[in-house]
Amino acid sequence: MSGGGILSYKRFGSEAAAIEKSSIGYCHFEPLGQRIQQMNNNLKSWVSSHSLAMTKKGFTLAEVLVTLGIIGVVSAMTVPTLMQNHQRKTYVTQIHKFYNELQQAAQQYMTDRNAVNLREAGLTDQAALNNFVKTYFKVVNDCGSTYTPCLAPSYRKLSGKVIGAGTGQPAFVTIASGVSFGYGLASSGTADNSRVAIFDVDINGQQGPNIAGRDVFILGLFNNGIVDEYALTSAPGDKDTRENLFNTTCNADNATWHGCFGKLLNDNWEMNY
Question: Which of 13, 77, 218, 256 fits a 20 to 30 Å CA distance from 225?
């Protein structure tokens, strides 16, 4: 081997040794025990910090009691109003349904007899009115001329005034929807839009509250087939007349029953009183 070859070999060997030494010097292997200890310390630190945060976000017993007290007061103030509004909407829904049924029955009565109004169709006496009711409504209880058990023994007004028992009508029935009513002829003239009959309606029979303007209404059936406020002499009535009837009869402390239904018509089927 020539001298140049020997030098090259030595040079290569020294460089390799240097590289090996350098590689070992820069590769740092941490002992396993130390690494596990470090991980354990990190975990303890994380748990401690999060436990402190959770403790800070909690509520004291006093804070919980105050919050519950506030919720109780708000509930006591709002729940009765919500229940009252719901009940009133139920009343309106039921009287609106009967209103539609009565008006549809009147129109069908005229159609079946090819007549232009109810009197022409033959609705001129109590016998004809009895036949009208029993033909166009599903009667489940015919109380005859006795108001109970179809209607309640007595009723009150919005003011609390007791307005006595019975409604003075000659016939009383309960129909399949649960509505009870007394009815009779109640002519206000001979004009095409004059009143023909009266319907004293209790939307839930003897069940409470039995208050005129809540679950009890007096409807008028008019010669042209329109159902409106009973106290009107012709239909359809105007808003001012209905409003005046409500203020002087339904909402007044007297013995009159009527005036409430027209208010519902005026207020677009909302019980705002």
Answer: 256
Distance CA 271, CA 264 (A): 6
Structure tokens at 35: 């690494």
- Residue pLDDT, tens place only, 227-255: 999 999 999 999 999 999 999 999 999 98
| Cα dihedral value 223, 224, 227, 230, nearest 10 | -40
Sign of CA dihedral 130, 257, 241, 239: negative
pTM (2 d.p.) = 0.72
* Orientation angle between helical segments 126-136 and 61-112, nearest 10 degrees: 120
Burial class for 180, CB neighbours closer than 10 Å (0-12, 13-18, 19+): buried
Q: What is the C-alpha separation between 115 and 55, in angstroms, rounded?
A: 83
Q: Are 198 and 219 in contact (CB under 8 A)?
A: yes
SS3 96: helix
Tokens of 17: 């040794």
